Amino acid sequence: MTENEYLKRCSRCILPETAPNITFDKDGVCNFCRSHIKVQYEGESKLRDLLYSYRRDSNRYDCVVGVSGGRDSSYTLLKLVKDYNLKVLAVNYENPFTDPQAKTNIESAVEALNIDVVSFKLKNNIHEKTFKHNFTTWLREPSPAAIPMMCIACKLILPNIIKYARMYDVRCVVTGGNPYEYTSFKRELLNVSTDENYMNLLTKSFGIRGFGGITNEILKNPLYCHPMCIPTMITGFLYGNPYSFGPRFLSPNIEFVDIFHYIPWQEEEVLSRIKQELNWESPKRFSSSWRFDCTVSHLKDFMYMKTLNMTEKDDFYSKMVREGMITREEALIRIKDENKLHINEIQELFDSTEISTASHLQKDKREIILKEVLAKQVR
């Protein structure tokens, strides 16, 4: 039995007692279940009308879509091309930490749908450099709220997608983030309450409250303010998601459409269609098809497990339970398997970025845990 199997969990969802700001009532039900507001969708007919309003016969493309090779972006691409018959330009960021299967999935989708795809890289290896710097900085003052700092370079993706939209005079950027993956505990860690609908959360997380929480983390560990990282952090704050300041106020002529704000995200349909129609696959070495496309996700799982004794999957499946999409029993079975740490993947990530676990992890007793687990090479 693993350590987190001893945790007290909500009797309705599966959030553990270690989740930030969680409380339980006399029946063992958590405050997040009690305040949960079910997702409201605007409807597919409204989505079609909106998308079709951006169709132009004279234009090469009707919309731009960012693709990663993961399940939701692949489904979004499929939906737009096959169901709505739109002319789509796929934009792919050549993430240096992309899983090989994700690259194969993009190639398969482009071939199956017969669409154009453009790829871009970030200059000067900024992704690798900021990842390495911020991870080693985090080790000096481990904090669950600061874990996303490793991924600040990913916030440069959206400005590049906008750049391609402008290049081809496209006024519509479509995204495929589903409402259950907007991780609530990350916002609680930044003192952004999640007791409201998720559209408000998206704007507030990159508003004054979210900025204040991030600033507190930086003040605790000023090494995050390396000159190399500051421009990326500023851009990341401006373009954290399609509802943050940059897209809304600096790109007012571009409409950002998230299809899962209009139609329900249904896991079985998503996986069934992309597998059958796009030859999409997830790596057989992982039990979950979610967020495998970036290898950094395995390290983030480790860091959350060691600081909170939970991962993003605990939050994700709790939301699905609240929405009635899966049972609590099914969610518990899933996390028992999917929360297993993939230490070999983490070690390969360190090797590829020349992070020496020995040199960095012997400096502080808090870091010995990571060193010991890595040494065991236990999955």
Describe the protein in words:
The protein has 379 residues and is α/β, with parallel strands linked by helices. The protein has a domain at 39-289: Rossmann fold (3-Layer(aba) Sandwich), CATH 3.40.50. 47% of the residues lie in helices and 6% in strands. It has 18 helices and 5 strands. A 5-stranded parallel β-sheet has the order 3-2-1-4-5, sandwiched between helices. Helix 3 (71-83) links the parallel strand 1 and strand 2. Helix 3 runs parallel beside helix 4, helix 3 (71-83) crosses helix 12 (267-278) and helix 13 packs across helix 16 (343-353). The two termini are 14 Å apart.
Q: How would you summarize what this structure contains?
A:
The chain has 379 residues and is of the alpha/beta class. Helices cover 47% and strands 6% of the residues.
